[in-house]
Write a structure and sequence with these properties.
It is a single chain. The chain is built from 13 helices and 39 strands. By secondary structure, it is α+β, with helices and mostly antiparallel strands. It has six domains: 3-102, Ubiquitin-like (UB roll) (Roll), CATH 3.10.20; 105-182, Ubiquitin-like (UB roll) (Roll), CATH 3.10.20; 188-273, Ubiquitin-like (UB roll); 279-354, Roll (Ubiquitin-like (UB roll)); 360-432, membrane protein fhac (Ubiquitin-like (UB roll), Roll), CATH 3.10.20.310; 559-584 and 598-775, membrane protein fhac: a member of the omp85/tpsb transporter family (Porin, Beta Barrel), CATH 2.40.160.50.
Length: 779
């Protein structure tokens, strides 16, 4: 039934209450108003909201006809904005009056009692759900914010947290919101129990979990604080462990997490159904293989008779998919269908290969390089535009860009071009890092007096990929000024060129008691020629002028070692010797590491041969180095390094003493004082030697709490090595050994290593040094 209203005359009301009419319509009745033409619209009650915002939601304009339906629509639309807590529409003659009451605005959001989180972190999390400064106040949103805060704390194991919210009205229709947090005590995991495990012990399974009961380092790692996300990851780790050992049908049937009434202790129970252990009866390949059946079959890691391994099956499918990608089939679909024989406890797999369409690359896009020029990155690419997609070349391109050392992150994606089925784009995204090192320092000691050091090295000067360097050192022992420049693409084919000019003055270490001075002035130019993606051969020519000064009976100086006296006698006047040499350099380098700065896999080899056939000095000097990196498990990397150096004089010339090798300290044998091993003078001073052998082994681990950050790691090490005089035979009995632990950090000023090592077979006269550090070493 419908009721129609008449005009209400004074004294009852000067206005027709349209809001009441709308309410009546919603209740099933209508207080109708005769349609009329709107002459004007007035908005009342707004303080912060612009009148234009209100007008934009009205379905009627000046000059248009107003009806009850339009009034109802206007009220509904204004309420939906969330700006107002009350909306009314009234009519005065032919004027439409919109009367609103705004919701308060949030002036501030504050926290008290917060210790576990940074306040900025909580502020951001509340903004994400709509509660923040200058936002419209909504009581329901405040309740949701309380729950969000509690959720944040529960994720950290703080189950006793209590949050009290205070809303304080202030001037200009605003409110201040304050959250008082009582964090309570951290709830810790007291026990993790497994039910149903028969093949593996509880302790073995607990070792797979990231969640732990309290231990030595859990105060830092917080692994003893329950997290649903961590438990989900741990369940997957358990499943993988079983699947890789033949338990094809293993299931984690349920998990129970209980907390004590005082909310301090958490107990976790994991129920496991292991199932049977299966072996592989066979693996068949079916589908389109383009005559490469044997090649693809060789990529299958599972063989008949093997215990089933989910990891090996996944790796096999991945290898086949990547190999198909190398032929241009970027979207090859590879599926392994199992046929389970439960009676024999065997499983047979049929691998179905659907290559799809052959794909080519439309464009190569580079992003994130705010400083480095596009051409510096593009010249490392081996996948070209408008050519067939090659997964191996794309991976190689990523590795080559990463090995530049200019970026902290290098990512690559190959999205399909919209509207096509046979084209992709290669999108590389990089994150720039500072590639320039500016090092300035000053120091004072009783031995060195005033020392000034400084260096400027820009590995990516002006984004060009060229390296410029200036080194200055004014220490008493080593005074150096050197200028260097390297252009890795001197030619478009990738031939590099480097220059170096230097002036070096060397005095004996403070631990030596004999004095001498070596001054070397010279320069060199080298070219590097790439012969493959990982092989480069270097050729160089240099000139060096060296002055050696010795002391015998000179007041204020200790007598020089006999080896240096003999040298100046052979090449000079018995006190000083000035020599000139023209060293020729030939070198080979192979680098297949995944990163030059923090490698985790791959190998690095180099051979450097230096010979001086002309000049007053004639000698040769050869060095071979081999580094090997192998990931083991859970971000643990095995790093091996070996180095052999050998030098001899040519003809009747002695090997120059200033070309000697040294050992001891970081970079050779840790636990012994730097450059202290090997032959010694009569007074015990280390002299170095014409040959050297060094071997290092490190197990590198992620630093606790750093996640997968490879730039900060700790390691254990074992070192061996020594140096030998010219003409001496290599003897294993003379090797020195050291072992210990250390930390490596790729700091903003270069790689930094700190180690604590102990000599394992020090002999009388060896100089020990347990704590050592070095800036600028990469291994």
């Amino acid at each position: 039934m419908k009721f129609y209203s008449e005009r209400i005359s004074p004294p009852f009301s000067p206005r027709r209450l349209i809001a009441i009419a709308v309410f009546a319509m919603c209740a099933g009745h209508a207080l109708a108003v005769d349609p009329f033409t709107v002459k004007d619209i007035r908005v009342e009650g707004i303080q912060r909201t612009e009148a234009g915002t209100v007008f934009s939601y009205l379905p009627v304009r000046v000059g248009e006809t107003y009806t009850d339906e339009k009034g109802a629509a206007a009220i509904k639309a204004l309420y939906a904005t969330g700006f107002f807590k009350d909306v009314r529409i009234e009519v005065e003659g032919d004027v439409l009056v919109v009367m609103v009451e705004e919701r308060p605005a949030i002036a501030s959001v504050d926290f008290s009692g917060v210790k576990e989180f940074e306040k900025d972190q909580l502020t951001k999390s509340l903004k994400d759900i709509g509660l923040g400064e200058s936002r419209i106040f909504d009581r329901a949103l405040v309740d949701r914010a309380e729950q969000e805060l509690k959720r944040q704390y529960l994720s950290r194991g703080l189950y006793g947290v209590e949050v009290t919210t205070t809303v304080t009205p202030i001037e200009r229709n605003r409110v201040a919101i304050s959250f008082a947090v009582d964090e309570g005590e951290v709830s810790r995991i007291r026990q993790i129990t497994f039910v149903g495990n028969k093949s593996f012990s509880d302790s073995e399974l607990r070792g797979l979990l990231s969640l732990r009961t309290p231990g030595w380092f859990t105060w830092y790692t917080k692994a003893d604080q329950y997290s649903k996300q961590k438990l989900t990851g741990d369940i997957e780790a358990l499943r993988s462990y079983y699947l890789n050992r033949g338990y094809l049908e293993m299931q984690v049937e349920s998990t129970q997490v209980s907390i004590t009434p005082d909310k301090k202790d958490i107990y976790i129970t994991i129920n496991i159904n292991e199932g049977d252990k299966y072996t592989v009866s066979g693996v068949q390949l079916e589908g389109e293989m383009f005559g490469r059946q044997e090649e693809l079959r060789s990529l299958v890691q599972l063989k008949p008779g093997d215990v089933y391994s989910g990891e090996k099956l996944a790796e096999s499918i991945k290898s086949i998919s990547e190999r198909m990608g190398n032929f241009g089939y970027a979207f090859a679909n590879i599926n392994a269908n199992p046929e389970i024989d439960r009676e024999k406890k065997q499983v047979n797999f049929t691998v179905l290969i659907d290559p799809g369409k052959r794909v080519y690359v439309r464009r190569v896009n580079i992003g994130g390089n705010t400083r480095t020029r596009d051409e510096v990155i593009r010249r490392e690419f081996r996948q070209f535009e408008d050519s067939w997609y090659d997964g191996q070349k794309i991976r190689l391109s990523r590795d080559r860009v990463d090995r530049l050392g200019y970026f902290t992150e290098v990512g690559i994606e190959t999205p399909e071009v919209p509207g096509t089925t046979d084209q992709v784009d290669v999108n590389m995204t990089v994150v720039e890092k500072p590639t320039g090192n500016i090092l300035l320092g000053a120091g004072f000691s009783s031995s060195e007096k005033l020392t000034l050091t400084g260096s400027i090295q820009q590995a990516n000067a002006f984004g060009s990929g060229n390296t410029l360097g200036i080194d200055v050192n004014t220490s008493k022992r080593n005074r150096t000024i050197a200028l260097s420049q390297t252009n890795p693409y001197f030619t478009d084919d990738g031939i590099s060129r480097s220059y170096e000019l230097f002036l070096r003055t060397t005095r004996p270490p403070e631990v030596n008691t004999g004095d001498y001075v070596i001054k070397t002035t010279g320069g060199n130019v080298k070219f590097g020629v790439p012969f493959s993606e990982v092989d480069t051969v270097f050729f160089g020519l240099g000139i060096e002028r060296t002055e050696v000064e010795t002391y015998t009976g000179v007041p204020g100086y200790n007598d020089s070692p006999e080896l240096y006296k003999r040298y100046v006698t052979d090449f000079g006047n018995g006190v000083t010797a000035t020599t000139t040499s023209f060293p020729l350099t030939a070198a080979w380098q192979r680098d297949s590491r995944d990163s030059a700065l923090v490698p985790t896999t791959g190998r690095y080899q180099r051979v450097n041969f230096e010979v001086a056939p002309a000049g007053s000095l004639k000698y040769y000097r050869a060095v071979y180095q081999d580094q090997y990196f192998q990931p083991l498990f859970r971000n643990v990397t095995l790093a091996l390094n070996g180095e052999i150096g050998y030098g001899r004089g040519l003809g009747d010339k002695r090997f120059p003493i200033f070309k000697n090798f040294y050992a001891g300290g970081i970079g050779s044998v840790r636990g012994y004082e730097g450059s202290s091993l090997g032959p010694r003078a009569a007074n015990g001073d280390p002299l170095g030697g014409a040959s050297r052998i060094v071997a290092n082994a490190e197990l590198q681990f992620p630093f606790p709490g750093s996640g997968n950050d490879r730039t900060l790691r700790w390691f254990t090490f074992f070192d061996a090595g020594n140096v030998f005089a010219e003409g001496d035979r290599f003897r294993t009995s003379e090797l020195r050994y050291g072992a210990g632990i250390g930390i490596s950090w790729v700091s903003p000023i270069g790689p930094l290593k700190l180690s604590y090592g102990q000599p394992l077979n020090a002999k009388e006269g060896d100089r020990k040094q347990t704590f050592q550090f070095q800036l600028g070493t990469g291994f």
